[in-house]
Amino acid sequence: MESTRKKLITLLANAKDSFVSGQRLSEELHISRAAIWKHMKALEQEGYQIEGVSRKGYRIVSFPDKMSINTIQWDLHTKWLGQEMYYKNQVDSTQTIAHQLAREGADHGTVVVADEQLKGRGRLHRPWDSQKGKGIWMSLILRPDIEPQRAPQLTLASAVSITRMLEKVCQAEAKIKWPNDIFLNDRKLAGILTEMQAEQDLIEYVIIGMGINVNQVQEDIPLSLQDIATSVKIETGSSFQREALIQDVLKEIETVYDQFMEEGFSAVKPYWEKAAYRIGETVTVKTRNLKWDAVLVGIQEDGALIVEDQSGKREILYSAEIDW
Ligand code: BT5
User: Fold this and answer.
1) What does the alpha-carbon distance between residue 166 and residue 19 come to, in Å, rounded to a whole number?
2) At what angle do helices 3-14 and 22-29 cross, to 10 degrees?
3) Residue among 128, 131, 208, 323 to mutate when testing ligand 1 (max atoms within 8 A of CB)
4) Residue 147 near residue 290, CB atoms below 8 Å
5) Which architecture characterizes domain 69-275 according to CATH?
6) Which of 68, 96, 135, 293 has the fewest CB atoms within 10 Å, i.e. the most exposed one?
7) What is the CATH code for 282-323?
8) CA distances from residue 188 to 103, 222, 226, 245, 274 in whole angstroms, order as listed
9) All CATH 2.30.30.100 domain ranges in the chain, comma separated
10) Domain with CATH 3.30.930.10 in the chain
11) What's the CA gap between 22 and 24, in Å, rounded?
12) Whose Cα sits closest to atom 29 in ligand 1?
């Protein structure tokens, strides 16, 4: 976005509900009052609702509902994640687009965001409800130089990043259910789908897909998910500008990822443990052929789940479903 426009939005956004005087805007942006007025009109065209009051100045009443690369990138403070970004109004799945881009050579850190997905998917091709305008439907292309068997650690690292963002931006204390679910007040708020293309011992690319329910109200949640799914809006009572969450979660992921690559999973593990859900509780564990009750003990140094059955026997799981 044009940099003056970007600075203007930042000044107004930082002031929150307070007015910023035309004089101050003019001084800080080194443009005339008439030019500022023109920018305000252009912002209104983009869907910003601006209030201008004489002798007080301007303030943003509401941000545009419609996301765009501009609205996502204007306050994105990452070094490499999301610097290359694709935004689509409607797609089958951002995962599919990300795979295609990755195969065509897209850079490490490329991000695909969609306003709506028609065939959003979870693990094992389970459907992921991705209504238009309500949540964050996003896939990240990563090219980590690690052994393929360590890729699941990236799911845990991404989960940590999502909970950090939720705490910071939404003041919501979310929990991580191993391996890929984010829960808020006992309902599923977000899910992560990690897919990988690897050859022998080499990762070609990893796609981290994340779906985060943001502004759905209870009636927006499909009937079949009414008892299990929730959104930030349902839990906190507040609507959030999705861009703000995307900007922050990308920043968190970049920070956690860089730390993970430098120091290994041990740098992420304590954060994961802090946000872990139902540790110490008895749950139902399901693997491909088996189902049994066990206590969730925690995770190992490599991110694998440790469970203990009623006889005290411990097992290490690399893939499983946890239920209760
Ligand atoms: C997941 O799978 O939780 C991973 C979801 C990843 C979605 C993102 S959106 C961007 C990217 N593009 C895609 O196509 N996918 C990724 P899993 O653990 O298998 O959970 C799937 C289950 O969650 C479903 O069977 C439902 O029970 C439930 N579910 C479906 N939609 C939901 C929603 N919007 N909110 C909460 N739960 C939902």
Assistant:
1) 28
2) 140
3) 128
4) no
5) 2-Layer Sandwich (3.30)
6) 293
7) 2.30.30.100
8) 32, 13, 10, 17, 18
9) 282-323
10) 69-275
11) 6
12) 128
Helix (H, G, I), strand (E, B), or coil: what is residue 120?
coil
Our answer on whether the CB atom of 193 is closer than 6 Å to any ligand 1 atom is yes
First and final CA of the chain: distance in angstroms? 48
Question: Is-contact 242 136, C-beta < 8 A?
Answer: yes
Ligand 1 centroid distance, CA of 191 (Å): 5
Q: What is residue 156's DSSP assignment?
A: H
Return the amino acid letter for 305: L
- Report helix, strand and coil shares of the chain as percent, to nearest 5: 35, 30, 35
CB neighbour burial string for 295-316, b if at least 16 within 10 angstroms, e if fewer: bbeebeeebbbbbeeeeeeebe
Is the C-beta atom of 138 inside 6 A of ligand 1?
yes
Residue with tokens 């994640």: 81
CATH class of the region 3-62:
mainly alpha
Strands (E), 100-134: 111-117
State pLDDT tens for residues 138-172.
999 999 999 999 999 999 999 999 999 999 999 99
* Tens digits of residue pLDDT in 97-145: 999 999 999 999 999 999 999 999 999 999 999 999 999 999 999 999 9
Determine whether 98 is exposed, middle or buried from the number of CB atoms within 10 Å of its CB (0-12, 13-18, 19+): buried
Bridge partners of 163, per DSSP, are none
| DSSP type of residue 106 | P
Helices (H), the chain: 3-14, 22-29, 33-45, 69-73, 94-103, 151-170, 232-236, 242-263, 269-275
Residues in CB range of 63: below 8 A, 6 or more apart:
47, 48, 71, 241, 243
ipTM of the complex: 0.99
Q: For residues 268 and 160, is the Cβ–Cβ distance under 8 A?
A: yes
